[in-house]
Design brief:
Elements lengths: L1 H17 L1 H6 L4 H16 L4 H29 L2
Length: 80
């Protein structure tokens, strides 16, 4: 898992290096937000199918990377 975490950090750093302001302004498209909410709600009601669990896990990983990038973008902007 450590290698994956390092990859997440590297990707977040890369995103911030391009444009920290744009990183802070990024939001997932509405259809993706709705899909994640749907999967989370369904997960509370009954177990998800394997493919849906996998899909939700991918969304959570992407959200983690974006949060890392936004945190670093805030830090980079505040240091200017």
């Amino acid at each position: 898992m450590t290698n994956a975490i390092n990859a997440y950090d590297s990707l977040a750093d890369f995103m911030v290096s391009l444009d920290p302001v744009k990183v802070l302004g990024f939001h997932a498209p509405k259809n993706i937000q709705e899909r994640v909410e749907e999967l989370l709600e369904r997960q509370q009601e009954s177990p998800l199918a394997f493919s849906e669990k996998e899909e939700l896990e991918h969304y959570m990983i992407l959200e983690h990377i974006v949060r890392l990038a936004k945190s670093r973008a805030r830090l980079q902007i505040s240091e200017k």
